[in-house]
Automatic annotation (TrEMBL):
Record lineage: Bacteria, Bacillati, Actinomycetota, Actinomycetes, Bifidobacteriales
Source species of the chain: Bifidobacterium angulatum DSM 20098 = JCM 7096
PANTHER family linked: ACYLPHOSPHATASE (PTHR47268)
SUPFAM superfamilies noted in UniProt: Acylphosphatase/BLUF domain-like
Protein name: acylphosphatase
Pfam families in UniProt: Acylphosphatase
Positions of the catalytic residues: 27, 45
Length: 100
């Protein structure tokens, strides 16, 4: 994710997590970890069994969240974490669970 910008410049990412990530507390794990890091954004379950989220904050904090997402909570089995940068949003405060 290095683009010559400051190491801790703000960044926003769109993430899709695949594997056994529904029915195991994955969304609430994500909210807890994101809030610990002071990130803004949201997380939700998808109809296909994946979990989708967007997270925004300092690049190093977002990178830490992604590392934690790869592990997930105890009962999860993460197979894939796909990450794409997306434009920053100024209207996003806090981190929450969203519906479908």
């Amino acid at each position: 994710m290095s683009d010559g910008a400051g190491h801790d410049a703000a960044v926003r990412v769109h993430v899709t997590v695949s594997g056994m990530v529904q029915g195991v507390g994955y969304r609430y794990f994500t909210v807890t970890e994101a809030r610990k890091l002071g990130l803004a954004g949201w997380v939700r379950n998808l109809m296909n069994g994946d979990v989708e989220l967007e997270a925004q904050g300092a690049r190093s904090d977002v990178a830490m969240l992604i590392s934690r997402l790869k592990l997930g909570p105890a009962w999860s089995d993460v197979h894939r974490v796909a990450v794409d940068e997306t434009p920053l949003r100024g209207d996003d405060n806090g981190f929450r669970v969203r519906g479908y």
